[in-house]
Every structure is written in structure tokens, then in C-alpha cells.
Amino acid sequence: MVNEARIKKNLKNLAFPRLSGTEFELKAFNKVMEEVENLNLEFEIQPFTFSSFYSRIYPKIAFLSGSLILLLFYLNIIMMISFVLILILFCIVMASLILTRKPEKIQFIKKFNSQNLLVKINSKSNEKDNNDRIVMFMSHLDSKGQRFTINTRIRMIKLWISSSTFLAVVIIYKLFISMEFEIIFYVIGLFPLIINMYATIIILLNTTDNSSVGAVDNASGIVCNLELLNYFSIPKNRLTNYNMWFLFTGAEECGTMGIRHFYNNLENLDFNKSIIFNFESIANHVYLFPGENDVDHIKEVDHLLLNNNRNLQISHYITSRVLGTHSDGGFLGDKGLQGWGVGEVEAYAYMHTPNDTIDKIDTKVLKNLCLVLIDTLKEHDSNFTKNKK
To answer: I want to staple 150 with a disulfide (CB 3.0 to 4.6 A). Which of 29, 234, 240, 348 is the partner?
Structure first.
């Protein structure tokens, strides 16, 4: 059965700073591996190397270059020199874009080592037809601290995008449409230019460190994953029509490197038959971050989750992901896998800070969430069996 005491114990054991690619992330990996070994389950280790360029350096290059290009167009002085500088900056941005199309392939600046852990549990029936029909629970092992909170970083990115757009429109009018009123457009453009530079400076000043114990982000997700693994490791508790995968990824906080490695080595999985749950920071509330989710079995599971019998309030949180934000669930959603991120919006206020501590988490909520997921999957599995007959 789902055990709140075990949830608390695992949460306490895993709530320590564990920056991607460090000995601390490896320590968290070893603790999870030990829990899996205690259940006498087979598992797969997926080691990989990665660079921090995509997550920590590339965004600063892109935002700074974009701001400087806009500034040079705005100033419109010594055009030949400006043209050369703009061309250089544009080439830097394009080269970075090309490099980061496959960020997991980048192996320069400084390389780090990490690893995923994958546990596979067969269905009760163990039929071959179930081999491409899976339920997968995911959670990332690493944590990070940053100078500015997630909310602040998202605000700065949105501010940069909106000010850049407005400034670009002003520049186009100033240079090509109403040159006789150039001085007016210089004045109009000054305000978005100042805002854009302010947002750029905040983005540049942001740093990544090992200061957060990552209790909510994402020890809460790891313990949910482990608790469900405990439950479904018992043969009588397994599903009849679905194999189950439990994935613990490394280096999520450094550009989703673990899930990219997992996806690049994925075989024989029908995306339209999958059900994916990505645990991503749960403290006191539960939100579902849905993907496209346009297939019938996903719609049924969604209905069962929202109308659960455990008095657990679950809400959909519909949002377009902001440029520069990454998550394992978002990456797989972009690839067409069906499912949900499971997390909490309120936790954004202190995630990636030293305030992300165990006292923020209500373990009763974590226990109830696990029970709701078990109830939902068992009812859906039962309905699936009836529909096959």
C-alpha cells in the first residue's frame, strides 16, 4: 500500500543540493538505485555526457546579441561599422541556433557526466500486444539554485520579448517609413530600449549554483515515483493491459539532457498508446499541465483524474511554455507523447532558491496523489479489458 511514512523518509533522504553533473547528483542517483535494488527489480542505467552551454551560456548569448542588434539599429550611426557589428552578432546568433538544435550533441566548453535510471515492469498478462502500450512515470534527480527566482526570470524573458517587439516596430518606422519624423521615433523608442536593456542585464546577472536542497523541485517528484514503484512492484497490483516504466532522469535542470538521451535511444514505443506522467514539483496543490492529449484513452484518464474519489483537488493549468523554460514533460510533449506534467504553480515563488525546503511540502497531498493515480489507472485498465471483449 501507499505509505506516507515512507514518503517522508525518502523525502528527507533526497532533499539535499544535487547540481547536475556533480557528485551530489550522483549521490541522489545512488540512493534511488538502492531503493530499486531493495525491491529486487531489474533496472537499466543510461550514462551520458553533456555540456552546460545550452542551458547556462547560450541564453545569455542569444538575449545579449538580440539586444545589441536592436540598439545598433536604433542608434543608426556610422552605418558601415554598425552593419559589420550587426552582421557579426547575427552570425553568432545563427551559429548558436544551429548548435542548439541538438543540444545533447554539444561536447565543448566543460563536459559533465550524468545518468538516467529506468525500471520496467511487465503487465500481469505479459502479452506481446502490451509491449508498445505503456504507462510511464518520470521525475528528475537533480536540483539547482539560481540568483533569481523562476517567476523573476519568466517576467524578464516576457519583458524582453515584448520590449524587443515594440522596439523593432519603432525602428522599422524610423528607418524606412517616416524618416522625416525620425526624432519623434527616437523618443518613442527610448522607453522600450531602456526596458529591454534592463531585462537583458537581469538575464546576464543570473547564475546557477548548488544552493537549493530542491525539496519541492524535485525531491517531491522522486518520492512519488518511488512510492508508485513500490506499489506496482507487487505482482498482484500490476496493470493487465499496460507495461509500466519508471524513469529517473539526470541533468533536467541543465537543458533536459537526461530525457533527450532517453528519447534518442527509445525504440518500439507507440506514442498514441502511451500514458506519461512527469512529476515536476508538488508541495500543497496539484495541477495537471496537459499536452495535446487528443486520443480517447487519454481523455478517459483525464476525466477520471479530475473526478477522483479521494477528495483531491486537481486543476488543469493551461499555458504556453515561455522561451527559455525546459522540462522533461515538455520535451516529450513536443515529440508527440501523450500525458501530463504534474506540478504546482505556487511553488514557482521559491523554486531554485535556498527556500525550497521540506517544510513547504504536505506529504498527505503526495500520498493522496499516488492513490488517485493508482485508482485512475486501475479503473482505466479495467475499462480497457471490458472494451476488448
So the answer is: 348
**pLDDT by residue, tens only, the chain of 389 residues:** 899 999 999 999 999 999 999 999 999 999 999 999 999 999 999 999 999 998 899 999 999 999 999 998 888 776 666 778 888 888 888 888 887 888 888 888 789 999 999 999 999 876 656 567 899 999 999 999 999 988 899 999 999 999 999 999 998 888 777 667 778 888 999 999 999 999 999 999 999 999 999 999 999 999 999 999 999 999 999 999 999 999 999 999 999 999 999 999 987 778 888 899 999 999 999 999 988 777 889 999 999 999 999 999 999 887 766 655 678 998 998 888 889 999 999 998 999 999 999 999 999 999 999 999 999 999 999 998 887 76
The answer to pTM > 0.90 is yes
Residue type, 179: M
> C-alpha 266: how far from its chain's center?
19
Instruction: Judge if 141 and 157 occupy the same domain.
Output: no
Structural contact between residues 361 and 284, judged by C-beta atoms closer than 8 angstroms = yes
Same domain, 248 and 164: no
Which residue blocks in 126-181 are alpha helix, DSSP H?
Answer: 150-172
What lies within 8 Å, CB to CB, of 239 at 6+ separation is 123, 124, 135, 232, 377, 378, 381
Q: Please count the CA atoms within 13 angstroms of the CA of 132 that sit on its side-chain side.
A: 10
Give the range of the structural domain holding residue 185, as residue numbers without chain letter.
61-100+150-205
Structural contact between residues 261 and 238, judged by C-beta atoms closer than 8 angstroms: no
CA dihedral 185, 190, 191, 194 (to 10 degrees): 150
299 and 369 inside one domain: yes
**Residue 167 and residue 40 share a domain:** no
User: Cell numbers 523541485 label which residue?
Assistant: 217
With cell 505503456, the residue in question is 134
Whole-number CA gyration radius for the chain: 24
- Assess contact for 286 and 314: CB atoms under 8 A: yes
Same domain for 215 and 199: no
